[in-house]
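Quick one: structure for this chain?
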Amino acid sequence: MSGSWWARFVLTMAVLFWAVWMLIPTFAGDTAEERRQKVAEKAGGTAQAEEVEEELWYSSFLPEQRINLGIDLQGGIDMTLEVMVEEAVISGVQRDITGVLEQAEKDGIKLADVRRAAGEPILLVQGAEAVGLDALRVFMEKNYAGYEYLDSREVPGKDGVAATYHAFGVTEDQAAYLGDQAVQQALETLRNRIDETGVKEPTIVLKGGNRINVQLPGIDDIQQAVKAIGTTAVLEFSLVDEEVMKNFTAVERALLTAETEDPVVFADDKALSDWMVRGGHIPADDMLIWEYTQGAEGEERSTPYVVKQEIILTGDDINDARVGMNQFNEPYVSMEFKPRGGNIFAEVTGENVGRRFAIILDDRVRSAPSIRERIGGGRASIEMGVTDYQLAMEDAKVLSLVLRTGALPAPVTIGDIRQVGASLGEDAIVAGELATTVGFGLVMVFMLVYYRKLGLVSIAALSMNLILVLALLAAVGATLTLPGIAGIALTIGMAVDCNIIIFERIRDERRLGKNDRSAADTGFAKSLSAVLDANITTFIAGVVLYTYGTGPIKGFAVTLMIGIVTTLITGTFVSRTLTDLLTRKANSRLSF
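Got it. Here's what it folds into:
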């Protein structure tokens, strides 16, 4: 038994050493990555590589993870976002226009025009002379089952003259499907954006319906968080209608009329564009979009553009986006297209030399540069157009972030925003530490009074159990919340229960006349099944809580399950090793 005991003792000490090492970044320093960053900043690019390596030699031995604190412990921002699924459905209809035209050409169906009804999830389809309503209905039912025929209506055609279009609206099932897809895509896009910002362990979950709850621990700048998260970042490239822009006086007169007759419509960009189309002031396949500049009272309309509704490229064609500086030391966003997007961009710029190419972000023109020559290489840029350098740099960083991580499928509105102060988190930590300390202290006193020497064994096992729980949380980079602290406190109680079951079994064996050494061996062996049953059933409850719970419930379940694993290790293995130390001699007495 001597050799076996020493092997178990060495293994116990090795595990304890690992646990203490894993907790160094959490309680006494930096992680390896944080240490490398500090040394690199200190070097400032002037130190020799050898000097940096000399300072870094021990950093590689530091753990890469630490225990992260949840929003209820370190403060942060809690916000609720609502995805405007109606806009997602309308955007889906807009995207289907190109597909309908291409599919009709494949099927030999000649179409005169396909467009989306202004402000509605309805496709307006106009067949050529020989194509009637029946042929169009068969074509749509075959290829686009998510649409249903509504009616036929007179709307302005491409030449401004009223023409008959057949309206196909999105079915309820299709609208629900597109809405669900939009919410799921928004959830994933938000995760990508927040990961890029470096926020540690954010919580992003569906709150029900089309609402998403976002928790950002350690963040206190609400405006910056809203700017990065809530920006839809729908990027589109369209050609400016130069024919209309040449006779822009007529457009300006129409705008003055709209402002006078209906100020509410005039104040809404989309409604104003639809009003211009319905009144025949701009062609039916065009739209009116404004460029905005920073004014004294925020962003203000500056220049209107009439652009083609046909979207040539979108943000989905962007491969990468980075902040750059031009020759005037002004920030801009450089974009690199994917191969397909680069080819389209080169083809369109080659065919439209002399025209303007509108870069539209979130339904606002960011810039409309003139095409002077074919642009190859798959690159383009967006000038920020702001005189304030700091503001322009912040806008450029946010824009490059959202372009890299993808556009939201629909606009999101910010609902409730709650800022949790760090002082509240500190109070919670103090209260949690006090509760754990008091509970641990009372357990220690009870075990010492009732079990004497075995009480010391229990205290040592409990202490190692607590250290192991924290070390495993650090190893996986888990987030510790108030419910997590409650789970740790519960772990202490369960660990004591494990020891009590074993110690009482040892007492029963002593009453049968066995010596302490034999009683300890038998007690650990015969109580193992009861200990396993109790902990396995509790672990199953923890799995259920983690599977079906959200937020705080998951945090509680994680610490509970980790605590059960460490309880089994310390209660059966570590306690057995220390008990064997006390009963190594045949005449040893446990004195209880």
